[in-house]
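User: Fold this; tokens only.

Assistant: Input:
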Amino acid sequence: MNFQMNDEQQMLADSARSFVRANSDVEKHRQNKQLVKLDAATWQQFAELGWLAVPFEEKHGGLGLGVTETMVLLESLGEGLIMAPYIATVVMGGGFLRHARELVQDEKIPALIEGKLQLAFAAEEYERVFSLENTAMSGEVQDNGIVLNGTKACVLNGDQADLLVVLVRTEGAVGDRHGLSLMLVDANAEGIERLPHRTVDGRQGAEVRFSNVLVPHEFLIGELNQAADIADSVLQEALLAISAECVGSLSVLLEQTVEYSKTRQQFGVPIGKFQALQHRMTDMFIAMEQTRSLLLAATLKTAEGHKDAPRAVHAIKAQLGRGGRKIVQEAIQIHGGMGMTDELGVGHYAKRVTAADGMFGNADRHLMAMAAARP
């Protein structure tokens, strides 16, 4: 699929690639072994570049852009494995803020755009294949608010977020779509315990435990028991963002593998001369083009409000797991033992794509969802 960027999108891509050239190298990824807070200066640079303002309305200080511009930005950042909580804070957190009460929007969105507020979406739970309907954590509705009890697992940016967007069950049983509610919760509120951890790709998250945490009714997002549609729409944009970032990473994997095949010699000739490896790199190229085309199709359908957009989003997430795995495995195989080490960028990109496959449902889950969404 052909996609021609307009001037605004090209500026976003150029600024992101310039940032990547100045701030991304293998040594920085190798050093990411400790749980450390995001450098405040880096996040402030995101704000100064205008990236935090991309999806928000001008009345809140945003740029009034959409999912297409977010895709362009994140694909470029994915080329450098930039480990900033953009998806957690801007795409998901900001997406939910746009559905909050107007007074909350007026206060929180400008703070986010200025780099003074970070968010995280607490949805995953232990021992449950991810889907909104599988949410079991309880929210007890009382006159003065909703009391939260339970544990959320692998909350991306949960260790550093100032606000948590928490998905809970306030009515019904596990498996019901009705009865889900979303609320904004102060991450430092009494009764919240955060246990930070690193993910396989070196990023940071947290297990978040809630013990009798009272959330006033005004911090509900949407209507009580009616949050499923809002969560679906924000997750759709998040899945596109994750896929865009990984398409950037996969393109680098392909490029580095082809370049390596030209310099690594065996039996006195570059290994790229061997027909068997040429065939394998051709398969990588085909998988790359299929993945990028599906990303473009899903993004443009979402931007246009096409009725088939949800199915297209499931398709790109499924392809990310299947086609992405093909590119990752071939890249490691062609690089040999070095592909498994931290010495080369290949291993770091492979871990990122592998981790992304499991976020909010893996390839198999989205393939089944895509099939179920057929008209």
